[in-house]
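SAMPLE LOG
Freezer: B-3
Tube label: C17
Construct: single chain, 236 aa
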Amino acid sequence: MDIQELWPGGPLFRQSEHFRLSTDSVLLADFAQPRGAERGIDLGCGSGILALLLAEKSSALHMTGLELQPGAAAVARENAALNGLDGRLEVLGGDIRQHRALFRAGSFDLAVSNPPYFPEGAGAAAPRADRAAARGEASCSLAELCDAAAFLLRTGGSFFLVHRPERLSELCACLSGRGLEPKRLRLVCHRAESAPSLVLLEARRGGHPGLTIEPMLVLSTPDGSESVEYRRIYHR
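STRUCTURE (predicted):
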């Protein structure tokens, strides 16, 4: 696979056939706030672009990527090396559901995830198991993902994730029920008049109740061109 630049002068990466680079991960990396975090984990890192962007965002941050699919994990390691980050971005092959066997409780200051959006059995089934894992929750449910984040984060640590707006109430219930209090929410829509297509959410381990709803992130102008904020995120 060819090496590409995410933007001119930006991170180099190879695409994984298992997990294609999506705008969702780039938007989440922009939304996430390391705030002096030293150890972060990307739960289900795919080809590693989210962990890579966060490691570049904060020079103090050491990122761990956890990925079930061996092929995707191998590409993520290549991407870390391509960007000279193999000293601050390590990729482990493993199952999110086995987090207690892989790490100690409270090992991380920050966790991120761009998880599968659809419950198991919802929508058309992908023909391959690896692509099914990227699309649906056969390998890790939303509840299991939140279990992992709650165990892995120290008190005061933040969990940043992107998801679908129709599952927002379920997501908030899963998080708060595990001691991860939703603190920041941003809705993403293609145009100002469109319904939201994504939600960006930060939850804090042991946080007090109180949710800040940030201004809508609009990706396109009325004529269909890229919005000013979209261009900022992609360094255009």
